[in-house]
Amino acid sequence: MKAVIIDDMPLAIANLQQDLEDNFPEIELIGTADGVVSGAKLLKTLDPEILFLDINMDDGDGFDLLDLVQEKNFHVIFTTASEDYAIRAFQYSAADYLLKPVDTELLGKAIAKIKESNGISSDQVDIIKSNLSENDAHRIALNTQNEIRVLEFDEIQRCEAMDNYTRFFLSDGSKILVTKTLKEFEKTLPGTIFMRPHQSHLVNKTKIQSYIKTEGGYLLLKNGDRVPVSVRKKSEVMDALLNK
After folding, report:
1. Which of 56, 148, 167, 229 lies at a CB distance of 3.0 to 4.6 Å from 217, suitable for a disulfide?
2. Phi/psi at 51 (nearest 5 deg)?
3. Which residues neighbour 223 within 8 Å (Cβ) at sequence distance 6 or greater?
4. How, if at all, do strands 75-80 and 50-54 pair?
């Protein structure tokens, strides 16, 4: 698979290039660039299957570059030195990411993952951009085995842990199984809307009808679903219900 690296840090390019050469001989590096403009020019002449793309660069960001080369189809793996809320947005979008300095094991997982996908479309880039805005965030993109599903938070009734998977229960009665843990989704979904009453459950607060004290205590949702409340979480749940 042919690859291109675009990053404004020469050391980051050198380190990633060396990692690819040492550990992933199936990846052929065919070009590098140090910014948005130079990267766009490079991609006009090359057809990589993988693009390792820095987010923040001196002359713009990685999304600016993707806007310039929308006619191209390649797999994007974002690289970034910033471990803020944006990273959590990437985890549930169509793109993958690597935190610099790049971990070889995670690099291998990212490469394996993109072999099963079909590249990144302009619509998926728009989703990621939307997820990056904390003030405007109101939806999440879920990457399932068969599709990329974009959900408004209001469509989500609850989430349930299934080992290393999470099952989403939606307002229309459908379910979605995603290969991410519930803990990861707890970090991504806003605490102003979702709460975790039990180790295995996340619930949309707006979907709760009442708290039932019998049978150990559980939340009764408006659609009739019952969600258990752990003893450890009871006071937290009561505070959330009183202040929602």
Report:
1. 229
2. -120, 115
3. 157, 171, 207
4. parallel
Q: Which helix (H) or strand (E) holds 80?
A: strand 75-80
Q: What is the DSSP letter of 177?
A: E
Distance CA 240, CA 138 (A): 20
CATH number of the domain where residue 180 is located: 2.40.50.1020
Does any domain span residue 196?
yes
Q: What is the per-residue pLDDT across 53-93, written as a single tens digit (0 to 9) for each?
A: 998 888 888 877 887 887 777 888 888 876 554 555 454 44
Do residues 136 and 70 make contact, with C-beta atoms less than 8 angstroms apart? no
What is residue 134's predicted lDDT score, i.e. its pLDDT? 47
Mark whether 203 and 85 lie in a shared domain. Answer: no
Q: Is-contact 154 207, C-beta < 8 A? A: no
Which one, of 89, 241, 225, lies nearest residue 158 by Cα?
225
DSSP element (H, E) containing 204? strand 201-204
Nearest alpha carbon to residue 148 among 109, 170, 176, 169 = 176
Domain limits at 194? 144-242
For the full predicted model, state whether its pTM sits above 0.70.
no
Per-residue CA distances from 156 to 84, 143, 174, 211 (Å): 24, 15, 10, 19
Which one, of 138, 143, 180, lies nearest residue 155 by Cα? 138
Positive or negative torsion for Cα 135, 150, 244, 186: negative
